[in-house]
Structures are given as structure tokens and as C-alpha cells.
Amino acid sequence: MIEIKNLTKIYKLSKKQQKEHKTKDTQKKAVDDLSLTVDRGEIFGLLGTNGAGKTTTLRCLATLLKPTSGSISIDGLDVCRDSEKVRAKISFLTNEIKMDPYFTPDYLFSFFGRLRGMDNSLVEARKKELFEYFGITDFKNKKVEELSTGMKQKVSIAVSLVHDPEIIIFDEPTNGLDIITARAVLDYLRMEKEQGKTVIVSTHVMSEAQKLCDRIAIIIDGRLAAMGTLEELEAQTQTSDLEDAFFEFYRQNVKEA
Amino acid sequence: MRGLKVVFNKEMRRVFREPKMLFSLFILPVILMIGMYALMGYLAQSMTQDIESHKSIVYVENMPEEISPYLDDFFSQAEMTVFDASADLDSMKEQVAQGNIDLIMIFPENFMEQVENYTEGSAVPDIQVFYNPSEDYSNEAWTRLNAALDGVLRPSLLEERIGDLGMLTIFTVNAQGGGEIIDEQRAAGQILSMLLPYLITILLFAGTMSLGTDTITGEKERGTMASMLVTPVRRSDIVLGKLLALTCMSMLSAVIYIVALVIAMPQALGTGNMAIGFTPSQVIMIIILMILLAFFYVSLVGLVAVLAKTMKEATTYISPLYIIVIVAGMITMLSTSGGHDTWEYVVPVYNVSLALGEIFTRELTVIHFVLTAGSTLVFSAILSGIIIKAFNSEHFMFNA
After folding, report:
1. Where does the ABC transporter domain start and stop, copy by copy (chain A) (predicted)?
2. Where are the strands (E) in chain B, listed by range?
3. Is A28 touching B (CB cutoff 8 A)?
4. Fewest C-beta in 10 Å: which of A247, B204, B286, B302?
5. With contacts defined as CB-CB under 8 Å, which chain A residues touch B3?
6. Is the pLDDT of residue B188 over 70?
7. What per-residue confidence (pLDDT) applies to B243?
């Protein structure tokens, strides 16, 4: 079980960043007092516009960023104190994490397997399975720099799953993928769920969230605007699809602000 | 430790599986260096040849005919122009300054009479010579003329005056030649002790610079570092794996470079063999110091690389460091041997350069060696510790 309690993350803004964001504030509150729990074996979606704080939340979950305040625990492990143990349990994919362009998918998969302490036969078995599932086998010996965006994304996904993680945290996993591969990724996540794995995905694609997620949290300006199953969110807003529900929540929250 | 080994292997593979990297790291510097020295040797040689084959342009006034046979050697390689008192001496001097005339020689009127009629206490005739020491041709003409006047003309005139030159010579020194006894190993050691410590100190750094920024800042910038940071491997394993791989590579590139230098430079420069015999303990000390210095550089570059946000920023910070390293190496090259204070052996970079020089001349004491090695190791450990701290900081790793 994943428990996020009162998570707040504040970034300090450098002079350059202040200019970029056209603000005079020296800091930016990316996530603001966010609390939620994700149960084992469910697919949980974070839905929000760009810059809403989804990626920051997930990076905190993945132990890459430390919360400014609040706490996150994963199966009872604190992400700050037990970060190495947490990293052993999870898989984290975000578009800012890239595969080394100078190596082949084949080598990178083995490298990350070894880095996670797996023995060679297990790595090879996982490689065969995942490379075939995501259609990587054909280009597994090409250097990453020669691959297309979609191919790279497939490799990133496969590599992130090398250790058969209990918890999968994917930040916009279908970004850059063609419709067939995107479907394959979503199917894979469903398959993992059936095997009792926990999946957290962030997305701004409504249809994806609608079809995939058991529960959805809508995040607006770093704050939790709503949380529940698709049906609950629609009922709260008296709408009949997620996109309409999202706009309703967005309208309410932005108006309040 | 497991992670360290895996990261180390990946870093090594990155270089050794990439022909471009291999070439730029190990082969190109050697080609450039040998080419540069070969060119320098060729230019120096052709310059000497050019000067030697040049016919000096000489202006002469009042030269007595009797003495011209004595100066045959000189005038055979000169184009002589005779002038008289009506000529404009100042404008001729101006020509010397500009390098158009190599030498002006003015004998006093009735030079021979003055020489022949000399009596004790009368004035000694003076030959005036004008030349330009900053012009190679003029300088060479002056050297040759001087040799002819001193070595041929004066002894001949003296002999005419007093008959037996032995009267004046009293004794000679090494008239048969062959007085020089050189310990070639020590002489070679002195050239090496000046050159090699300097080269080792800067070459190790040069090998580290580009690779170090690429493997740390480059990986941060490309987003590939994060892929390692989400694995359960300890950050210290990632850092040390990278630093050790870099140390090996900068050692290797420096060793290849130095071997090439010792073999190729004498040939390129056209000088004799510079081969030198080392005792096993010397070799061990040199290797230990090189490894420690390489590790120190790697930690230094690594620290800059981890603090820098972009490759451009890293390169900007590292250039001044490179200049400091070059200066530290140069100080030891220029300083005289012996008599260094103990504190000098704990100044990073400088101490290793100093100690290496003293190994070649067999002057390094055990205490100074231990101080040098120990302090370099301590500095490196401190720097590595800071890098590991930075690797744990989201600010430096993710610009957050």
C-alpha cells in the first residue's frame, strides 16, 4: 500500500527560472498538501494538466525528490529513510529518464539487471519475455541513438520492468508511442494488475485514464481536486464522461483560486 | 560493491567499444604530439641549415690586402662590399638594424703600419665591427668573423711579431680533446626529470577533463544518470565506479602518451637516445604517484562536473583548473633541485610533480614520498566524499 500524507514540494527558483516563469517569486509550490492512498493491486491514475504537479509527486514517490513536508510510505517503508529498499520494489518511468544513446537495448537491459543484483539467467529470461512482448527483439542490437522516439520509449519501459517490480510508477507512459504500442503498454499494465501488482500512472489523456484506472485523482495546481472511481467522479459532477468531469472540477478549482 | 563493479564495467565498455572514443583518447594525442615534435625538429634543422648556408653581406672599409688571406675562410661565405670614408655610415648602420646588411667592419687607416710599428705603450689599433644580435644572419656573421679574427688573424700576426707562440701560450688544456666524461644515465635522467613530471601532471589532467565531464555532467544533461539513480544501488557505488573507471582511463592514456614520447621524441628532435634505466622501486613509486594523482584529478573534475548543470558550464569551470595544473607543473620544471620545505610535499598537484622529478634524479626521501602520496589520497577522498553528497542531493542531480 502506498500512503501519501500531506505532501508538499516547494522548488526554489533561480533568477533564470524566475525569468522563464515570468514571476518574481523565489519559490514555486509544485505540490500542495496532497494526501492519498493507493491500494495493493489497483491501477491508480493521476490526472492533471501540464505543470499540475503529477510528475513531481511521482518523483517524490520514486525517492528522487525529497518532500519539503509531509511523508510518503510504500509498504511501510519511508521514501526518505529507506530509499534504497523502496527503489528495489518499484519501477519508475518518466520522460526525463533516458537510455544511454551509446549502448544497445540488449546491453542496457542486462546492465540494469546486473545493477539490480539479478543473476544472468534470470536477466536473459526477462529480456526474452519483455523484448518479445514490446517488439524490441528486431532492434535490440542497434545503438539507442539510432532508434526512433517510439522505439526508445519501448526500450525504457522494458528496462524499467527488468526486475519484475511489485509497484510500477509510470509518468505518461504512452507519450510518443504509436497507437498499437500504446495499447500494448496499457494491456501489459492490466496484466500486471491481474498478477497483484500495484500500478500508478499519470496522464493527461482522458480516454486512457477512463479505460485503464480503477481510481483516479485529479490534481490541479498541486492540490488534490477530487479522487474516486470513474463513476464517483462523474456522479460528483453530474457528467457522463471523464473529460466533462475534469472540466467541471477544473472550473470549480480555478474559480476558487 | 556489486553496483560499483557493474558501473565500472559500463564506463570502460563505453570507451573501449567506441572506435571514436578510443581514437580521440589514446591515439590522436600521440599522433599530434609526435607530429608536433617532428615538425619542431624539422623547422629547427632547416633554420640552422638556412643560416649556415647564407652568404653574409659584409661591408668593409680600409682592409689591408696583406690580411685578406687570413680571413679567407670568413670571406668565402660572404658577399663583400668595400666602401670608403665618403660613404654614409649612419645609413649603413640603419641597414644593419633592418637586417639588410649583416655586418660592417672598419679597419683603422694604415692598420698594418700600426701593427708592425707597435712599441710598448703606444696605442693598440682597434677594428670597429657593427652587427645586429637579434638578426640570425648577422649574429652568425659576427660569430664567424670573431672566430676568424681570434683564431687565425691574431695568432698569425702575433707569430710575426714575437716568433714563437709557445712563449705566450705557456700551457694548453686538453689540446688533444676528449676531456668530457658523461654519465649518460644521469644526463638523460636530468632531461627526463625536468620534462616528464611536467608532462605527467598535465597529461593525466588532459585525459580526465573531457571524459570526466561527459560521464557525469553529460549523463545528467542527457537524463541517463537518472536511470541509474532509480535503481537500489548506493549512490556511493555509482560515484566510485565512475571515478575508478576514469582513473584507469586517464592512467592508460598518460602511459601510452609517455611511452610514445620517450620513444619518439629523440628521433623526432634528431637528438640521441633518451632511454633511461629505472630501478624497480622507482617504477613502483612512479606508478603509485601517477595513480594517486590521476584519482585526485578525477575527483576534482568529478566535483566540478557534478556541480555544473550543463556541459558548457562544466567546461567553463574546468579551463581555469587546467591552467592551475599547468602552472603547478611548470613551477617544478623551473625550480632548482634539492632543498624543498616539507610543506611543499602536501600541496596538491605540485607535490606529485615535485616528487616525480626527485624520483628521476634519485633525491626523493621516503618521508617526502609518504607525505606526497598520503596527502594526495586524503584530498581525493575528501573530494570524492563531497561528490557522493552531491549525488544524494536533488538540487545537483535534478536541478530541483
Report:
1. 2-246
2. 56-61, 78-83, 103-106, 128-131
3. no
4. A247
5. 115
6. no
7. 95
